[in-house]
User: Fold these one by one.
Assistant:
Number 1:
Amino acid sequence: MLVLTRRAGESIVIGDDVRVVVLDVRGETVRLGIEAPRSVQVHRAEVYAEVQAANAAALAPPAGDLGPLAGHLSRLARPRTPADRRPGRRTPVRSPDAVPPQGRTMVVMTEGDQRLQHLQEEIDQARAAAAEAEPDLLPQTPSPADRVVEGSGEHEAGSPSEGPDAGPPGEVDVDR
Amino acid sequence: MSVEDLPELSFVRPLPGFGDLRRFVLVEISSDDDGDPVLFELRSLEEPAVRFLCAVPTAFFPDYAFELDEAECADLDVRDEADALVLVLLTIGRDAVATTANLLAPVVVNARTRAAAQVILTGTDWPVRAAVA
């Protein structure tokens, strides 16, 4: 494991196109901003592990007819109303075309536009600070997609990756 | 209808925990009284032992909704709500009543292009194991 000490506003780069910015450090909580291409999935480790485990558990028996079980399950299904049948009604989808061109896409793991704006300001400040400290590392053009991970989200409590093991303030452990 | 005749789904990235499997077929196994599909088998074409039972979530969870972010829309080339077919993976319990659905990580299929991905939702409280009954 590579261990790096960073302060708020400083960052690290991983490969050519992933950048992790330490936004701030409060007590045992470190907030990180992550800029990565869209093709790179960014998730809290414990959430990703939970989905991996759930997928493994969801494997159906390799042989055998699923029909009888499906029959039982179908009887548990609720009758759908006409409104349910409208395509996509239950899945609001924002078209990418509707997004004003900003040169990058923000994926923010918190709710609320205000929060998003606040985070964006923090990232811009962190970028400005980083530009002063290490101008060579700052991308000359915005990356295809920038992301912000709100580290103090709903999954924080008791999580191994963000709990006391996160190290003393100012230090960010990077798993390799 | 044999597997070869069924429309092939192309996952833009593997399901978490399932290496590099990207080619699947979706086999409808159950529909409601109006003929609308309720349950599907999602079967790997590369590893036949890998198959999942999945459901149209609104059949079991009428309030289920989420917003697909721009990056996912672009990855899947979803341009319109009608493009997106949403399915949830079921974990088969001891009996039907003990079966759970993964609402945190739905599988979104572009019904137009057959591109698919399991999307891990962020900023929601949908559980990874929700009882269907």
Number 2:
Amino acid sequence: MPLQEAGRISERELVLSRANRSVRLWSHVVDALAEGRQPDSEMIEDVGYLMRTTAVYGSGKFGAADREVIADRPELEAPFQAEMLSVYLTRAFVRDLAERMARQRGGRRAVRLDPAIARHLGIGNSTGLGMAPFLVNHPVLFNNWMLAREDAVARVRAIRSATPAETDMFRRLLARSAESVRRWRTAHPIQAGRVAGLARDLEALELRVRADDLDARYPWDRLMNWAAAALSMEGQELLASLMLEPYGELVNPLAERMSDRDADAFLIDGSMPIAELRLLIESSFGWALAYDWTARENTARAWYVSEEKLEPRLGERYEEPVAEFEQPLAPARDAAAAHAALAAWDGCRPVAEFLHAHPEHRHSVRRAQLRRKAPYGEIRDNTIGAELLPIDMLRAKLSFFGATRFDPRSDRWVRICMYAGAPNPEELTEENADLWVYPAALR
Amino acid sequence: MSFSLNEVEATARKAARGAGYDWGLCEEAGRAARWLCSFGLDGCGALAGQLRLVDGTDLRVAAPAVAARVWRAPEGAICPLVAGAAVSDFAFRLAAGGFALDSVMTPILLLPFAGAAAHRTGATLAVGWQGFAAMTDGRELDLGTGMRSGFAARADRVTIEAGGQVMHALQRASRAEPNPDDWLALERFAQRTYAPATPESRMLGAGAGMSDND
């Protein structure tokens, strides 16, 4: 399929993606292997992957099987399993391809890639704006992800005392995390500052857990409380992830709730009294009701789909002719508008009457009612303001895929790495299938 | 060509927007087309037909008054998407008696909304018009011995009432194979939602930034 987005696949296929070579690393690795030597480890560390995928399409896109076709299979029940597997296999395929090209070029002189280096290499990914609307368009799914994480963190914070094996594991992984941060390269000024802050956070955290007695009561809760004042957001989130690791049995079952099986969440409850709907809007978007939606800087952007690429784009509402093509990706603004329209209505009347008179608020009412099932379903910020950084939305989603080396290349597209450190298919065992995301040193 | 149901829903939603419906109703249109296709019925053809009918007209005059026992549009025929949304929203009134709708365009598009109403109320609903009868509990659809295609473009009176049960559930379909002309019509409507590229949008829309070819 030479043109990814002009292609068609069938119900027999689950995922469509493509990958581009890393110009920097590919020829270096193939040349070295063809000449019978291993590639330079510094270059390996610097780039981190041989190829990067772009969009990884599933769930019925371009004619693929719908999610429903596979959702009942236990191994694919959790969201994005087929897509993740395809990316993992692409990584192995890319290694095989590099070795094959080296063999063709070098003949007998060629060597295979050292398995330790192959393990070290991840697969890159370049992701753009297409992923940002996904968060807004799938509030229940996004809620389920956030809820699983928040639940997991809460469960571990509620642990009264930690065993030596648990605290040892935490300290070991903390040391290995410092190596992760050391390998994180980005030229993006905001992210570079955050990574530097994270490196300092890790030092502070190491000192803290050296001095702090993790044998005392509620060790993880105390640590998180300390972190709230002592560490940056990056450091706090990393700590929250790290402290889950010793407690797989406690937190892993939460992953089963991460998919969205609730097709009925879409249905509007027309019998709900308007007063209740107002409260729901206020609880999700209280901040947005006091916001000045007439200020140009607060509505500076508009999301639209470009005719040329058929992909989501972000335009400048007051400088480009895009407003009439705006997509419904400003839930906060729209909720505030619905709330204002509701002000004139008797709180006892059913929502159905309001909707019949105001079909233009239907999408906002639907979202507001989702609040009951999906308290984490909304981004609590303005998605059309002049200050918007779409890369923050991309990161929120990518983090759930286990992405590392988050490297923004502008305010709207990023590069990341996945599966660096993971065993390749032929070496994968129960024992090495976990914790590989925390790197050991290459040499 | 065979399309996934996800493609049907996405294209239908965009097509309805292209024809001028509000976003919330477009979501309903997408879901309605998908629902019909999931029972092997021609949801794409139904929606394409409906959008052709209302294209360029004032959608408000096709919205029925819903306070009366019999729903009527202020002018002409009732739009099944607007009325369907109301059927689903006012489902709580079904216990007190069914709905009757006078003069409805593309009445087959009301079925998914009756399904939603059935789902909300937990009652099985009977939907009928001249020469057509269906039962749905929201999960299953029963068209009895009636036809599976060639549905009326208009019905003089549609009734939606609680009662009965699904006896012969239609088989579920995981793909849709719309008539190419209908699919093209939906794509043409959808096309209207896309913004033409400008030099600025080419430069900035996706974020210029650094090269991705290194």
